[in-house]
Amino acid sequence: MLTWYSDAERTELSGATLANWVSKTGNLLVDELGLGPGDVAGVNLPPHWQTSAILLACWTAGLAVSHRGGNADVSFGLPGTACDYVVGLHPLAFPVKELEAGQRDWVLAARAHGDRYAGPPAEPDAPALVGLPQPVSHADLAALALARARELGLEGKRVLIDVGSHPRPLDWLLAPVAGRASLVLCRDVADLAKTAATERATIIE
Prior knowledge:
The protein has 205 residues and is of the alpha/beta class. It has a single domain, classed as Rossmann fold. It contains six helices and twelve strands. The longest helix is centred in the first third of the chain and has 18 residues, at 15-32. The protein is globular, with a radius of gyration of 16 Å.
């Protein structure tokens, strides 16, 4: 379902594997932290397969996501940043070796939870994105994602996306998911056309 490329990394995730990470993280948010609709997750991470799992988990659990920091109920960030859960972006999801006081490693924390999400579904009218001029609800975000998938012609296709040109999660994550596309995400890849041919992607964005 998702293949991640960078200048030094190639990671493949099946739909089942991605769903597993989403479920584990969703259960962490709901069962361990007691979060749900109305709560905010600060996600200060670049496009990556691990970022996709965290974002999808937050929305699955009914949380709102903020990319601007602020008063979040839980936060995810890179090593060396102020956050609750540190995300190392290691190709094989190895844990982060050094954490600041009060921080936890996302990989280890998520792995302790069940493989199937057991919490309630997101509430359609609850906020899904905050920190914008106007909050975006879960229902509106789903509609935006499907409309964007149709606009880009992604439905049912295998699409390669340069995340440097499409940094918004709506483009590099939500639209392909809504369109049931198979996704090749690339960062700092010199020859996108060659990568697209190798991965049999039919669309390059």
